[in-house]
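Hello again, I could really use a second opinion on something today. I've been staring at a protein lately and its backbone has me curious. Please have a think about how the structure follows from the sequence. I owe you a coffee for this, so here goes:
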Amino acid sequence: MPRPGREEPRSGDDLTVPDELAVGPGAVPDQPARGRGSAADALRPGTGAAPDALGPSTARPTAQPSAPDATRAPGPRAADRLADTIRAAILSGDLAPGTPLREEDLSATHGVSRHTARTALARLTAERLATAEPYRGVRVSLLDDDALIALQQLRCALETEALRIVRDRGIRPPDIDDALDALDVAEASGDWPATLAAHARVHLALVDAAGSPRIAEAYRRLDFEMRLLLSHVRPAYFPGALTAEHHTYVEQALADPEHAVRAHLDHSTRSILDSRHGG
C-alpha cells in the first residue's frame, strides 16, 4: 500500500537515470565540450593534475598565458618607428614635395607589413606632411601660397593665445633662453635643417609655457608643416640675423602678444613668399 504523500512509480513508467550515474551497459559517457579539451589534456605537462587528484582544499592551477604569436601583425610601435623615419626624411628634404609614398614600397624597404605601412602613412597624413588623393595614393604634401598663408594665420591664433596665458600668469618660459642659445649655435653652423629644428624649439618653448596640452598639440602639428615648407624654401638671412630677430621677438611677444605675434608671422610669411618667387 503506498505511503501517504509519496507517489509510487506506476507500472510501465520509465525511470530516467542521469548519464553520470549510469554504470550498466548502454550508459553514455560525458563528451568533452568542444574547445575545452579532454581529461588527457589536463594530464599533459604544464596543464596541471587530473581533476580527481585534487583534494577539496587544493587550489586548481591557473593556466598561464601563452607567448605572443610572432606571426601577428606588428603593433603600434612598429608604425610609430616607421612614421618617425619617413617624417625625418620629409623634413630633411630627402623626400621632396609630391614624392609618392607607396605602401608596398615602404613595406619592402623597411621590412614591415602593409598594415604597418598604412598606419604610418595615416599618421603622416593627419600631420599634413602627406596627402592622400583618390586614385593617386599618398604623396608628400605640397604647400602652395594659399596653404602657407592659412598655416600662418592658424599659427598666429594659437601662439597669441598661448602667450596671452603666459603674460597673464606673469611668468617667463623656462626653456626659452636655452632655445635661443641653441638657435644661435645652429645658425652659426650653417646647418639649415638644424637651424629649422632650433627655430621650432624657440616657438614651442613659448607655446608650451602656457601649460595647455591642446594648444601645444595643435601647434606641433602646424610646426611639422612649417618645417616641411622651410626645408625647400630658405629665406634670405644674414649670418646671425635669425637669432637676433627672435631675441627681439621673444621680448616683444611676452609683453604684447596680440600685436607682436601677428607682426612677426606676417614678416616671416613675406620673407618665405619672396624666397619662393625670387622677390
About this structure: The chain is about 55% helix and 5% strand. Strands lie at 130-133, 137-140. The first strand starts at residue 130 and ends at 133. The chain has two domains: 76-140, 145-277.
